[in-house]
Specification:
single chain, about 325 residues, 434 Repressor (Amino-terminal Domain), 5-stranded antiparallel β-sheet, 5 strands
Length: about 325
């Protein structure tokens, strides 16, 4: 998909967003603003030519597609689309959201996120979000049973809930971290060692923020999530920039390159499985290509366990 990186819009002519929502629960993310900014950033990344329109770039003062252009292509009135983008439309149909998604060329993950923001899926925001998640003892037994394979369970807000010793050997001893710091977002953006271990730190950072964006759509009233976003926004310029992009990610498998202080470069494949029956809990495991140098290095780390990483896992976050 082509992207449009034009200059900054003229403040005098830039399209206005919605006013803050009234009656928003204390400490919650503003759902209307989340919806508005998500759609605006999706419009900004498209050129008119991308959707078959004539591009008069020198005369345009709005980045990407205008609201009226998107509305025309989606088959709705400009006034209706404006109300929808500002979070003021009522009885929005699935067909309309699907049409808008097609025009904006949203990925499946982005489309699902838009449905959440538009409240066309089950409204999880009305249900209470427990501050702490518990991992079943059987799942902890499973982590121990697959020792030698780095694996951990993570949940809402990217919290790491349980792990085996091999995962500590690879990523640092999670037990040595303070409970509030057992969180991938905090580790990625606040721990100095994260830039050393993740060969492609930028990719890891985008994935973490994209997943948090998905949680924000599912649970806009989660005060702990709002607090985490606020903390990271204050302490990390990179996080602020990525959060403002409103990109969403849901990566369930892939390849990751790491630089370990003891064994050097590791190329690992990862798989993420949802734990059915345990709401919002996922198990991620890593393995190396059979016969590779990474497989040999991983076996060596597994034999050392968390002792392989204790010196760097106690690294305090600012």
């Amino acid at each position: 998909m082509a992207t449009h990186r034009a200059g900054r819009a003229d403040p005098a002519t830039a399209e206005a967003g919605p006013p803050p929502s009234q009656g928003q629960p204390h400490g919650a993310l503003d759902r209307r603003r989340e919806l508005s900014e998500f759609l605006r950033t999706r419009r900004d990344r498209l050129k008119p030519a991308d959707v078959g329109l004539t591009d008069y770039s020198r005369l345009r003062r709005v980045l990407g597609l205008r609201r009226e252009e998107l509305a025309q292509l989606a088959g709705v009135s400009a006034a209706y689309y404006t109300r929808f983008e500002q979070g003021n439309a009522r009885n929005v149909s699935r067909e309309v959201v699907d049409a808008i998604s097609r025009v904006l060329r949203l990925s499946d993950t982005e489309h699902a996120h838009l449905l959440e923001l538009a409240r066309l899926k089950t409204d999880t925001s009305k249900h209470g979000v427990s501050p702490h998640q518990q991992v079943r003892s059987e799942v902890r037994e499973l982590l121990r049973a697959i020792e030698g394979v780095p694996a951990y369970v993570w949940g809402r807000r990217s919290d790491v809930l349980a792990w085996n010793e091999t995962a500590s050997a690879v990523f640092g001893d999670w037990a040595a971290r303070a409970p509030q710091d057992r969180n991938w977002a905090r580790v990625t953006f606040l721990a100095p060692t994260s830039r050393e271990i993740f060969t492609d730190w930028d990719s890891k950072a985008r994935d973490v923020v994209g997943q948090l964006r998905l949680w924000a759509g599912l649970y806009p009233n989660d005060a702990q999530l709002a607090s985490l976003v606020g903390e990271l926004s204050m302490k990390s310029e990179e996080f602020r920039t990525l959060w403002a992009s409103h990109d969403v990610e849901k990566k369930t498998h892939g390849t990751m390159r790491l630089t370990h202080p003891l064994v050097g470069v590791l190329t690992l494949r990862y798989e993420t499985l949802a734990l059915q029956g345990d709401q919002d809990q996922y198990l991620t495991s890593y393995h190396a290509e059979p016969g590779s140098s990474s497989e040999q290095a991983l076996r060596l780390l597994a034999s050392w366990g968390p002792d392989a990483a204790r010196d760097r896992s106690a690294d305090p976050t600012p």
